[in-house]
């Protein structure tokens, strides 16, 4: 059985990013050669975030996520995300990041893949998420950047 992963918006964005060639090239290489080794998911939240991107990238981003299975957006995720905010794990203005973690948690996805170092791929934040999820009885996904999933 394949391990599962949830691709947060920043990973999709990095695929076409002209600003950071290392991140773009690593994302493309990983996406094209290794993503198929996982059961890969996205969500309506990722789709909505990508729909707000201007062309010429919007269509390319949306095409990238088309083949991915979509995690169901459950009320339980909203409650969990609100718990993260009420405990100060996420600031309310970063509620989308809280939702990404909540979706991956309630669906018991093995890896949440992100390039968001400020709010997700951050060891202090991850420790707080793990503590909260454990206390509340929820699964905690491992939050990683694509480079941690690249085979050497």
Walk me through this protein's architecture.
The protein has seven helices and five strands. The protein is an alpha/beta fold and 152 residues long. It has a single domain, classed as 5'-nuclease (Rossmann fold, 3-Layer(aba) Sandwich). β4, α7 (123-136) and β5 form a beta-alpha-beta unit. α5 (75-86) crosses α6. The longest helix has 14 residues, at 123-136. The two termini are 22 Å apart.
When the domains are counted, the total is 1
CATH homologous superfamily name?
5'-nuclease
CATH topology category name: Rossmann fold
Q: In CATH's first tier, which class applies?
A: Alpha Beta
- Rounded average pLDDT: 92
Return the structural class.
alpha/beta
Query: Total number of β-strand segments?
Result: 5
Shape: globular
Written as H for each helix and E for each strand, in order along the chain, the element string is EHHEHHEHHEHE
Strand residue content: 5-15%
Poorly predicted spans: none
Q: Helical segment tally?
A: 7
Give the proportion of residues in helices.
40-55%
Give the key terms:
single chain, 152 residues, alpha/beta, Rossmann fold, five-stranded parallel beta sheet, globular
Concise overview:
The protein is an alpha/beta fold. It contains 7 helices and 5 strands.
Topology diagram in text:
Layout: E1 4-7, H1 9-15, H2 21-33, E2 39-43, H3 44-51, H4 57-65, E3 69-71, H5 75-86, H6 95-106, E4 111-113, H7 123-136, E5 142-144
Parallel strand pairs: 1-2, 1-4, 2-3, 4-5
Helix pairs in contact: 1-2, 5-6
